[in-house]
UniProtKB/TrEMBL annotation:
Domain ABC transporter: 11-246, 263-507
Recorded superkingdom: Bacteria
A GO-annotated cellular component: plasma membrane
GO molecular function list: ATP binding; ATP hydrolysis activity
Signal peptide coordinates: none
InterPro entries: AAA+_ATPase, ABC_carbohydrate_import_ATPase, ABC_transporter-like_ATP-bd, ABC_transporter-like_CS, P-loop_NTPase
PANTHER family given in the database record: CARBOHYDRATE TRANSPORT ATP-BINDING PROTEIN MG119-RELATED, GUANOSINE IMPORT ATP-BINDING PROTEIN NUPO
Protein name: ABC transporter related
Keywords of the record: ATP-binding, Cell membrane, Membrane, Nucleotide-binding, Repeat, Translocase, Transport
Length: 527
C-alpha cells in the first residue's frame, strides 16, 4: 500500500497575536497554507482577517508569534520583503495607473533596463508568456483605462506573477465582477494552483468559498473558531460559525403591492468629474411599495446616477421628480426634506462624520429641527435619548452613544447610517451598495430593514454590484451598462445567466421578453 505524501507547507502562521489600543485584533491565530491549494479565510467585520493578511504581507508586525515560509522562520519587514519571499497580494481596490499600459503598470518598481533606457520589450515578452501559461488573455500594450474590471484584476495577478510570487493573497476578489467574470477568475485560480501556486482567498460570499476553496478557516473576534472543507460545510454552517448564531440566509419577503410612482427620472444625463457623460438618457419609475434594483458592474454610471438623484452631483439634462415635485439640481437638504432617505455607497466619505460621536451622526440631517434644536439652541439631552433608542432598535454594537463612530466596525458604521435614514418617515429610500464589505450577520439585518421599508409603503431604489442581493430583494430589476438602462425585468423570472450577460453588455439570444407585464406596466428590453 502506497502512502500519498502531504503537499509541502509553504506558509505558516503560528500563534499570531496583534493588539491595537483597546482592541486585540488577532489572538493566538495559527494557520497553514499548502502548495497548490486554495485556503479560504472567512469572518465577520472586525474578526481579524485583514490584520492577519497585513502581517503576512509586511504592512504590520505581530506582537507575538511567528511566520514561517517553507519551514523557515522569517521576519517580514515590509511589502518589498514579502514580495522578495514570493508573496503577492491583489487588493480589493486595484493599485493600477489608468493612463499607463498594462506593461508599464506591471513593471512599476521592477523595471528592466538596457543601459540607461527602459526596456519594455523584455517585459512585454514575459507578460505574454505568463498570459499564455495561466490563460489570462492580457494584452501588454492595452491601456488600463480601456480594460474592464475583470481584465484589470488579471493585470494585478500578472503583476504578482511577474515578481515570481507563488503565494497569492486575493482580498475580496469578486466584489465588482459579473458572474461570468467570477467564473473566469475561478478558472485562472485553478490554473495557478495546478502549476503549484498557493492562494489565500478572502471573501464574504459563502457560495463562492464553497465553489473554489480546498480548505476553509473561520475567524471570529480575532480567534480561529473552526476549520473545515467544502465537502463538510454548507452555507448555513459557515454563516453560523462566522456569527456564532443561526443566520437567516434567505430574504423573507411577501408579494409587492406597488402604488403610485414615487421617484420618476425623465431622460436624465449626468457628467463625471472630468466632464464625460456617464449617465446617458436614463428614464425610470420607482413605485411606492416596491423595490427596484439596479444591477450592473461598478463603473457603469450607477454611482453618478445616485449622486444626481440625491443632490450630490448636478443633473446635466433631464428631470428628477420625487413624490410629484421637481427636485432636479435641488440641494441635498431639500431632497432629504421631501422624504428621501439615502444610504450612500461610501459610508466613510458620504455617510458619516468619523470625528463625531454615534449620537451626533444619528442626527446629521435633522439636528436643526425639533426636538433636537429649538431655534439656534441645540438640545443635547434629546439627541442622546434619540441615539440610545436607535442603538437598541437597530442593534448597533457600540460601547456608548458618545463613542466616536470611527471606532466602530464596518457593519456597525453601516447600521448607524441605516438607523439614521430609516428612523425618519421617508417615502423614498435610495440604498447604494448597502451591504458592501460587511459580514453575513449585518447583511441579514439590513436586508430585513429594506424589505420592511417596502412593506410600509416606501419606494426603494436599490443599487448593488452584488447580483445575489439584487435578485433576492428586488421586485423589478433594471440593468445598467455604459450609462444606459439596457433592460428592465421582473425579478421573479430573471435568471443569473441572463442578468450577467446584460451586465457585460451582451443581449442573451432568445432569453429576454421583448415586452411583458408584471403589475407595473411594460417591461422594456432595449436592443
Amino acid at each position: 500500500m502506497t502512502m500519498t505524501a502531504e503537499p509541502e507547507i509553504v506558509l505558516e502562521a503560528r500563534n499570531i497575536t496583534k493588539r491595537f489600543p483597546g482592541v486585540v485584533a488577532n489572538e493566538q491565530v495559527s494557520l497553514t497554507l499548502r502548495r497548490g491549494e486554495v485556503l479560504a479565510l472567512l469572518g465577520e467585520n472586525g474578526a481579524g482577517k485583514t490584520t492577519l493578511m497585513n502581517i503576512l504581507y509586511g504592512l504590520y508586525h505581530q506582537d507575538s508569534g511567528e511566520v514561517l515560509i517553507r519551514g523557515e522562520p522569517v521576519r517580514i519587514g515590509g511589502p518589498s520583503d514579502s514580495i522578495r519571499r514570493g508573496i503577492g497580494m491583489v487588493h480589493q481596490h486595484f493599485m493600477l495607473v489608468p493612463v499607463f499600459t498594462v506593461a508599464e503598470n506591471i513593471i512599476l518598481g521592477a523595471e528592466t533596463v538596457k543601459g540607461p533606457f527602459l526596456d519594455l520589450n523584455i517585459a512585454r515578452q514575459r507578460i505574454r508568456e505568463l498570459s499564455r501559461q495561466y490563460h489570462l488573455d492580457v494584452d501588454p500594450d492595452a491601456y488600463v483605462k480601456d480594460l474592464s474590471v475583470g481584465q484589470q484584476q488579471r493585470v494585478e495577478i500578472i503583476k504578482a506573477l511577474y515578481r515570481n510570487a507563488d503565494i497569492l493573497i486575493l482580498d475580496e476578489p469578486t466584489a465588482v465582477l459579473t458572474p461570468q467574470e467570477t467564473e473566469e477568475l475561478f478558472a485562472i485560480i485553478r490554473s495557478l494552483t495546478a502549476r503549484g501556486a498557493s492562494v489565500i482567498f478572502i471573501s464574504h460570499k459563502l457560495k463562492e468559498v464553497l465553489a473554489i476553496a480546498d480548505r476553509i478557516i473561520v475567524l471570529r473576534r480575532g480567534r480561529v473558531v473552526g476549520e473545515t472543507t467544502p465537502r463538510e460545510a454548507t452555507e448555513r454552517s459557515l454563516a453560523e460559525m462566522m456569527v456564532g448564531r443561526s443566520v437567516m440566509l434567505e430574504v423573507e419577503k411577501g408579494e409587492a403591492h406597488p402604488g403610485a410612482p414615487m421617484l420618476v427620472l425623465e431622460d436624465v444625463t449626468v457628467l463625471d468629474d472630468r466632464g464625460q457623460q456617464v449617465v446617458n438618457g436614463v428614464s425610470l419609475e420607482v413605485h411606492a411599495g416596491e423595490i427596484l434594483g439596479i444591477a450592473g458592474v461598478q463603473g457603469n454610471g450607477q454611482t453618478e446616477l445616485v449622486e444626481a438623484i440625491t443632490g450630490l452631483r448636478p443633473v446635466h439634462s433631464g428631470k428628477v421628480r420625487i413624490n410629484g415635485r421637481d427636485v432636479t439640481n435641488a440641494s441635498p437638504r431639500r431632497i432629504s426634506e421631501t422624504g428621501c432617505a439615502h444610504v450612500p455607497e461610501d459610508r466613510q466619505e458620504d455617510g458619516l462624520v468619523l470625528t463625531y460621536s454615534v449620537a451626533d451622526n444619528l442626527v446629521l440631517n435633522t439636528y436643526y429641527t425639533p426636538p433636537f434644536a429649538h431655534g439656534v439652541i441645540r438640545d443635547d439631552r434629546a439627541i442622546l435619548d434619540h441615539a440610545v433608542r436607535l442603538i437598541e432598535r437597530y442593534d448597533v454594537r457600540t460601547p456608548s452613544a458618545l463613542t466616536l463612530v470611527s471606532a466602530l466596525s464596518g457593519g456597525n458604521k453601516q447600521k448607524v447610517i441605516i438607523a439614521r435614514e430609516l428612523s425618519r418617515e421617508g417615502r423614498l429610500l435610495v440604498a447604494a451598495q448597502p451591504t458592501r464589505g460587511i459580514d453575513v450577520g449585518s447583511i441579514e439585518f439590513i436586508h430585513q430593514q429594506i424589505v420592511a421599508e417596502r412593506d410600509r409603503g416606501a419606494a426603494v431604489l436599490l443599487v448593488s454590484a452584488e447580483l445575489d442581493e439584487i435578485m433576492a430583494l428586488s421586485d423589478r430589476i433594471a440593468v445598467m451598462y455604459h450609462g444606459r438602462i439596457v433592460a428592465t425585468l421582473p425579478a421573479a423570472s430573471a435568471t443569473r445567466e441572463e442578468l450577467g450577460l446584460l451586465m457585460a453588455g451582451v443581449q442573451p439570444v432568445g432569453a429576454l421578453r421583448e415586452s411583458t407585464t408584471d403589475g407595473y406596466g411594460e417591461v422594456n428590453v432595449q436592443r
